[in-house]
Amino acid sequence: MKFRPAATLALLFAAGSAVARAQAPTPAQTPKPFTLEVDVDLVSITAVVHDKAGRFISGLGPRNVQVFEDGVAQDVSIFQEAKGGADKIPLSIALVLDASGSMKPNMTFLQEAASSFIGKLEPEDEALVVGFNESVKGSAEFTSDQDRLENFIQGLQAFGGTSLYDALQYALERIKDRPGRKAVIIFSDGDDTTSGMGQKPVVDYARSVEATIYSVGIRGGTTGEAPPKGFLKTVADETGGQYFFPDRVGELLKIFTEISAELHQHYLLAYSPKKPPDSLFRKIEVKVDRPDAVVRVRKGYFATKRRKARG
Q: What are phi and psi of 296, to 5 degrees?
């Protein structure tokens, strides 16, 4: 097996992503229903491997790992541990922040935690910030300019309803064609009230995009409303991410620090499926030859054949 430099990996993983390159919706536009167009010539997987104590297990190689698709062993063609320097895997992050009216008492805490998270990005990382209430608005482009990202965060004002589903759909649309590892961090304090999208289509779309979702939900500031635990837990579980439901907003700094550390400690794998596309959902399982290893990956993908471009 050859280990490819980061630039080549970026191109290969981009090729394995969803290939419908529609423009991102404008802030006032309701996202269109999704269509699944996945190039299954190459399936990429982000694997986070911890021991029983929660410590990242480094130093694994291709011989330590097995990948199964619907129970059938696959031949891993790419295997790389996230490292710094010339071999660093590109990291793209969409930070999705609830700015609905119920967030008013907690907005300062959220902005502080989000800005601290942005400050932990490495020079090669790029991020996008999405704010939402009854509408969804994202910063212009993915960028490594931390000042620009922090200015967008500090400019958020809490008012209006909660378009949680639309916001996640928008973030996934923006990130799906990015190279390397892709992650979405979504924060909300209440159930969806104003989205044009339904919950199920957004969950299905999350399953089709090669992005890990980290969900954070807290109780609403003025009403005491519980966060949408079912939805936030589901999208995190399906994509190999984590979910957090802290009792206090003051815990956000610790949570964002934990997420930041994990984003820079993982493995990227890729394989060409042995079975041709059939438009069905296929389960992915990754096993490591260490008895103390706990592996977290996305649950699977839709094996839909890519549409040919028309001349």
A: -125, 120
Find, among 185, 183, 113, 104, the residue nearest to 150 by Cα. 113
CB atoms within 10 A of CB 51: 13
* Overall fold of domain 6-22+34-84+266-302: Immunoglobulin-like (2.60.40)
The pLDDT of residue 13 is 41
Q: Which of 30-34, 59-63, 168-172 has the lowest mean pLDDT?
A: 30-34
Closest by CA to 170, choosing from 24, 3, 7, is 24
Q: State the pLDDT at residue 224.
A: 55
Share the mean pLDDT of the chain.
84
| CATH architecture of the domain with range 91-263 | 3-Layer(aba) Sandwich (3.40)
CB-neighbour burial class of residue 39 (10 A; exposed 0-12, middle 13-18, buried 19+): middle
φ, ψ of residue 90 to 5 degrees: the values are -60, 140
The pLDDT value recorded for residue 249 is 81
The answer to whether the beta carbons of residues 297 and 47 sit under 8 Å apart is yes
CATH 2.60.40 in the chain: give the residue spans.
6-22+34-84+266-302
Bridge partners of 127, per DSSP, are: 93, 143
Question: How many C-beta atoms surround the C-beta of residue 268 within 10 A?
Answer: 20
**pTM greater than the 0.85 cutoff:** no
Give Cα separations from 247 to 197, 198, 250 (angstroms).
Answer: 29, 28, 9
